[in-house]
Amino acid sequence: MVNLTELYRIIVTANHILHNQDVVDAFGHISVRHPTKPDVYILSANMAPSLVSRPSDLVEYYVANSSAVDPNAPKGFIERYIHSEMYKKYSNISCVIHSHAETVLSFAVSGVPLRPVYHMAGFMGTTVPVHDSQDYYGPTSKHDMLISSIPLGASLADTFTNTNSTATNSTTPQNTVVLMRRHGFTTWGPDIKTAVYRAVFMKTDAGVQANAINLREALDGVGGTNMGETEFELASLTEEQARDCKKMNEEVQDRPWDMWVRNVERSPLYDNFA
Ligand SMILES: [Zn+2]
């Protein structure tokens, strides 16, 4: 039996956690597939995630075209096609998160590949695909980088699965995260906790990798500073490490979730009336 009241409360809390953990600012969003109507998903209205606080801030949309179930619903996010096309292509997805987190954004603009560089980011796999809206613009498209149509959303959803794979019709994406060039990233989960875990630790991993690259350059004497020798190369997780760490990540994700919930419940910044 699905308790919708409880689900609304968790969605509001997840919005607050993503803000509290610096995954989203005024922009970025999290959606959930409706638990009893798989052709519908739930996303907040056009508002900052930290301000989402009550069931009336949440809007139901049809997966088919991202139109609101209630024609009188408040204004929605322009980029809600990110969510609808993920739910449409992959039936096993129950939560989608889109973010412009700065640490990740650096990898979406620099061309430096984003990799899992420590054990908490094994879910990323060994490589993170990059989607570029520019590749999908038509003659009448707006070039504002936003995923503002079904075709753009579908192209992003397709990037989650390698085109040369035999599993292109899979109900589950091959990749857990996709970088969006000059824009941000999108991730998903089979449930809210998993998706939030991935969004937070993707952001953390990107910060660690960027710092490691900077330290490595200092160590290599860039800028005239030679700090000595090192015992190992800068390297990301191997395929086996990423696979086993992903499993471990899923087994331990309740611990940070409980901490993040406490953080936002005790913070005067956030209201949850759901
Ligand atoms: Zn965006």
Automatic annotation (TrEMBL):
Keyword Metal-binding: yes
SMART domains, per the entry: Aldolase_II (SM01007)
Entry-linked InterPro entries: Aldolase_class_II_sugar_metab (IPR050197), Aldolase_II/adducin_N (IPR001303), Aldolase_II/adducin_N_sf (IPR036409)
Source organism, top-level taxon: Eukaryota
Keywords of this entry: Lyase, Metal-binding
Claim: Metal-binding is one of the keywords in the record: yes
GO molecular function, one term: aldehyde-lyase activity
Occurrences of domain Class II aldolase/adducin N-terminal (ranges): 9-210
One GO biological process term: pentose catabolic process
Recorded GO CC terms: cytosol
Matching Pfam families: Aldolase_II
PANTHER family, per the entry: 3-OXO-TETRONATE 4-PHOSPHATE DECARBOXYLASE-RELATED, FUCULOSE PHOSPHATE ALDOLASE
Protein name: Arad-like aldolase/epimerase
